[in-house]
Design goal:
236 residues; mainly alpha; three-stranded parallel β-sheet; Ferritin
Length: 236
């Protein structure tokens, strides 16, 4: 059964205008050069008991509801990716050759743009900066860095694919499609850096990338995130 079409709220109309309006080149590059926020986050949304506990936890960050909640969900994931590549550029560039270093710097730039663009569009509705937990990543080991990057990029693609159907605003869906296409390019180049020619290995037998619902994505990301988050009010 299709979800009923709801009239966008005044707040959502404001967000929609901010997201759909083209960014000026100067603003775009200001976002690209912004420093990533420090972060850590524990995301637990997998079972009903956990949801009930999260609802009463005053320290949990609530993503919100409706389209605003989905945008905050995307913003949380972009915070995670931007923080990761910021660490890679700061600590791991010497592990890579010159062309690979440029790739890592480009990935950092893209994820920072995604993060800051969503934050600016959400304005006062944006969730706070989240803290990341990268203690399991060895930033002095190329394989550890690349396999983690593959995990994040594959997860990002699956997250956007799964969240698309939860959006009511067609403009938001267009935006998500533009971002997920970039995330898929990231996933492809990371796979090729790990093993040349494996760029499309994430596709299924139908040639399609997977889609995951928010609860599953947040559970998968929980190993790298420390701040508590409530996704209880997201659309189902």
């Amino acid at each position: 059964m299709e979800r009923p079409v709801k009239k966008p709220k005044k707040q959502e109309l404001s967000i929609s205008k901010a997201l759909i309006t083209p960014m000026q080149r100067r603003v775009f590059f200001r976002y690209a050069g912004a420093s990533a926020a420090a972060a850590t986050l524990i995301l637990t949304t997998s079972c009903d008991d956990d949801d009930d506990n999260m609802m009463t936890d005053p320290t949990a960050v609530d993503l919100g509801s409706d389209d605003t909640g989905i945008l905050n969900y995307a913003y949380a994931l972009e915070q995670l990716e931007a923080a990761f590549y910021t660490e890679v550029v700061a600590k791991s560039l010497s592990l890579f050759n010159a062309s690979e270093q440029q790739i890592m710097q480009d990935l950092k730039g893209h994820e920072t743009i995604h993060r800051d663009f969503l934050k600016a569009a959400l304005s006062s509705s944006a969730i706070p900066n989240l803290e990341v937990n990268f203690s399991a990543i060895n930033f002095n080991d190329k394989n550890s860095v690349l396999t983690t990057a593959r995990t994040f990029e594959d997860l990002g693609v699956a997250a956007y694919n799964g969240a698309g159907k939860l959006l009511d605003n067609a403009g938001f869906l267009t935006l998500a499609g533009k971002i997920v296409s970039v995330e898929a390019r990231h996933a492809a180049i990371i796979r090729d850096l790990i093993a040349n020619g494996t760029f499309s290995d994430s596709a299924d037998t139908n040639g399609l990338d997977p889609a995951m619902m928010p609860a599953d994505v947040l559970k998968a990301a929980s190993a790298f995130i420390k701040t508590k988050i409530s996704a209880n009010n997201l659309p189902k």
